[in-house]
Design brief:
This protein is α/β, with parallel strands linked by helices. It has helices spanning 21-27, 43-50, 105-112, 114-119, 152-168, 181-194, 207-218, 246-261, 264-267, 273-289, 304-308, 317-334, 343-352, 360-371, 378-387, 396-399, 438-447, 474-486, and strands at 7-8, 54-61, 70-79, 89-94, 120-125, 200-205, 223-229, 292-294, 297-299, 425-430, 451-457, 494-497.
Length: 498
Amino acid sequence: MTSVSLITGCAFRGEATTFDDGLARFQHQKVVWHGCKNSPKDTTGEELDQAGARCGEVTVPWDYRHPDGRVIEVALSRLRATDRAHRHGTLLYNPGGPGVPAMYLALQLRQAEPLLAARYDVIGMDPRFVGRSTPLDCHWPTVSIGSAGPDRSTFEKTVRLSRDLASRCARHRSVLPFVSTRNTARDMDVIRAALGEQKINYLGSSYGTYLGAVYLQLFPHRADRVVLDSTLDPDLYGPDLTRTMGPAVGRALEHWAGWAARRDSRYHLGSTPAEVLDAVDELNRTVSRGPIRVGGHAVDSRVLPQLLWNVTAGDDDEAYASYSADVRVLATAARGIEVTPTHVLEQTLTGLAAPDSDGTFSVQTAIQCADRAASRDPEAYYRDIQAHRTTEPVFGPLARTVTPCSFWPAAPAEPATKVRNDVPVLMVGATGDPAALYRGQLAAHRDLRGSRLVTLRGAFHHTVYAGLFAPKNTCVDNAVNAYLKDGTLPPGDTTCRS
C-alpha cells in the first residue's frame, strides 16, 4: 500500500510552458489559509502560528505532461510583510536538500533578515512528496549508504545495500518519475498564480539554487528578484554530484588542519598542518583494518569517512572546535584506548545507526534519481574509486561509490534540464565551499548569462547569506539586501572577504 495519497480532480494536457484551460483551473484556485498547527504535538506548527504565519495547500497535477485526473496537494506557509506600505511582493524560499521541508524554515529566514520580514510575504513550500506535501517514504532501514571502504569486499557491501534500498521503493514505481525538480518548479509557478502574483521573487540555497535555475529556464518571464546562494552546477546536478566533492572536502580538511595545529596544546593532533593530516590518515588506515570502539558504537570503514566529512559543517571557531574534539576522540580510540564520545559525536553515531524514520533519505534519493539517470554499472563506480584512491584516500570511496539510483525501479520521465538563459540573477558563494564547488558556481554563472556573482574569498563553508547555516558576512548580506531592496544588480561581479 503506497504512502502517497492521491486526490482525483481536473487536469490539463501539454507542457507546463504551453498551458491550456486545464491548467487555468489550477492557476485560478484560491489558497484557503488556516492555522499551521495540525496536532497537539506539532511544535513547529505552533511556532509558526505564534509568529503570525498562516498555512495552506495548493492542488497541482501529478504529471504535468499527461495530467489525466490525478492531482496532489502541496503545503505552504506564509509570513506576510510587516511594512505593507513598502511591500515588494512574494518571496518563495527553498533552503536546499533536496527533500527538506521549508514551511518552518521560512520563519527562520524571516527572523534572520529584517529586510525580508518588512518587504516580502515569505513563502515556505514543502516540495512535492516532502513533509506535508503528499509525503513519499520507502521506509529505508538506514540514513546513508556510507563509504565503499578500502577494498572490493567493502565496496560490494555498498552495492548490496544500494540494491536493497532501491527495491524497497519499487512499490512506489508509479510515483517515482514525477518526484523531479522540474515538477517542483512547475508547482512553484502554480503557487505564484494561486497567490495572484504576476511574478515571483525567489531565494534558494544549495539544492535550492538548482530548483531556482530550473524555474528560470521553464518560466523566464515570471521571475522578479532572484538570489541563488552557493549555486550548484546545473549540468552536473543529480545522483552522482558528490563524485566531484572529494577534493573540495579535502581542501576544507587542510584548512581545518591549520586551525587545529595552532591549538595543538588543546587537541594534541599535531603542531603543524601536515602532522594533523597525518593523524587523520593514520586514523583512516587503522579503521580500514578493522572497526574501532567509540563508547557504545563500532566505527568501521563505512562510517568513519562520514564522520570526517563533518568538516564541511563550517569553518568558524565553534564548528572547528567541535570537529577537533570529535577527531581527538576517534584518534584516541584508534590507539585502543577506551573513550567517551563527545555529545555531538554520540548524536551523529546514533543517527547513522538509525533507520530513515521520516523518509528524508529515500525522498532525497528519489528526487535525484528522477532528475538525472545514473550509470547502472557498479563496475564503473569501482573503477572510479580505484583510480582516485591515491589522491582521495579518505573521501573518494565515500563520494564516488554507487547509489540506489543505479538500481532504481523507474527511469526519469524527462531529460535533465539544460539551463541556458539570460534572466537577471544575483549569485553569492564562497571559494572554498565544499558542497557547491566554486568551479561549479562559475559554470552556473556562465549558464545564467544575466547573473552577477558576489564571491566570498577565503571561506570554507556552505551557504553565505544571512547567517542561516554559516557565519554572517556583512559584505555579502549588504550586496543581497541592496538587490532585494531596489532590484538593481551590481554593475559587475564583486568580491567579499571572510
